[in-house]
Design brief:
Elements: E1 6-11, E2 14-19, H1 30-44, E3 51-56, E4 61-63, H2 68-71, H3 76-94, E5 100-104, E6 107-109, H4 111-118, E7 121-125, E8 129-131, H5 145-153, H6 155-164, E9 168-169, H7 170-176, E10 181-183, H8 188-200, H9 204-219, H10 222-237, H11 240-250
Parallel strand pairs: 2-3, 3-5, 4-6, 5-7, 6-8, 7-10
Antiparallel strand pairs: 1-2, 8-9
The protein binds coenzyme A.
The site of coenzyme A has 15 residues, from helix 2 and strand 6.
């Protein structure tokens, strides 16, 4: 499929999705959001892809937000729809059933930070900057930022970031647990690929069920989340892969996972 705003490479079970509007610092316009949603819906059923890496074109910006030009004509109703549509796009990423790694290569502002928050693993280059500057436009984060940012960095820091619009740098994002690793820009994609290769070498049923169980922490109270975890653990015990994984350990050999 041809995309106007995305570059897609799919190789060795790993997809790299590059948002490609570098002259606009990869700001997400309507087409980019539609294309992201379409791609992430399609990748759910692509058996040849295990892990997706998402990044921005160029060396300056991951995504500098939603396209501000599109915000100028919104009223109450169309604004609410605009927000719901963006939330759906990012939900399609979070819920695509496969691990998504954000490789953050520069500005991750507004919708860019919200996109980062919808990914499962986040690594950043040293020049990355993260912020929710919507308040500078007299609006609020509308693509999940008010909900996901407090869950990831804690309510106090999230409130500070959302109310001041002040950005944080990559090291602070690391200290806060917003990203799990900071690397030089030249090593960013290689680092993301290494993580993706490790994940891809595992039994993919266990990877999917781990994602579902982790996702429960975002959605459900602890008692329900623990029940979800136990159900998914039981489902793993019913797979051939788990029999093979445990047997291979005891026999001191590499497991041969069949994803069944
Ligand atoms: N929406 C639309 N266009 C954007 C954009 C956005 N979110 N962010 C950047 N751009 C465009 C600029 O308008 C400019 O386009 P032009 O060359 O046609 O004038 C181009 O990208 C380069 O941006 P510029 O502002 O010149 O780069 P800079 O290095 O001086 O500043 C930023 C970089 C990220 C600090 C600045 O672009 C910025 O503040 N962007 C908006 C961030 C934001 O508020 N995001 C949340 C939106 S809800």
């Amino acid at each position: 499929m041809e995309y106007q705003t995305l570059l897609i490479s799919e190789e060795n079970r790993i997809a790299i999705v590059t948002i490609n509007r570098p002259d606009k610092l990869n700001a997400l316009n309507k087409i980019a959001k539609e294309e992201l949603k379409n791609y992430f819906i399609s990748v759910t059923t692509k058996n040849e892809i295990d892990v997706i890496i998402i990044t921005g074109a160029g060396e300056k910006s991951f995504v500098a937000g939603t396209d501000i030009v599109e915000l100028t004509s919104l009223d109450r109703n169309s604004g609410e729809e605009y927000s719901k549509n963006g939330q759906n796009v990012f939900n399609s990423i979070e819920l695509c059933g496969k691990p998504v790694i954000a490789a953050i290569n520069g500005y991750a502002l507004g919708g860019g930070l919200e996109l980062v928050l919808a990914c499962h693993i986040r690594i950043a280059s040293e020049n990355a900057k993260f912020g929710q500057p919507e308040v500078n436009l007299a609006t609020i984060p509308g693509y999940g930022g008010t909900q996901r940012l407090p869950r990831v960095v804690g309510i106090s820091k999230a409130t500070e970031m959302i109310l001041t619009g002040n950005p944080i740098d990559a090291q602070e994002a690391f200290r806060l647990g917003l990203v799990s690793k900071v690397v030089p820009q030249s090593e960013l994609i290689l680092s993301a690929k290494k993580l993706a290769e490790i994940i891809s070498s595992k039994g993919q049923i266990a990877i999917k069920k781990s994602l579902s169980a982790i996702h429960a922490t975002m959605q459900e109270p602890l008692v329900i989340g623990l029940r979800t975890e136990a159900t998914l653990f039981g489902e793993c015990c019913a797979t051939e892969d788990m029999k093979e994984g445990t047997k291979a350990f005891i026999e001191k050999r590499k497991p041969d996972f069949k994803n069944s």
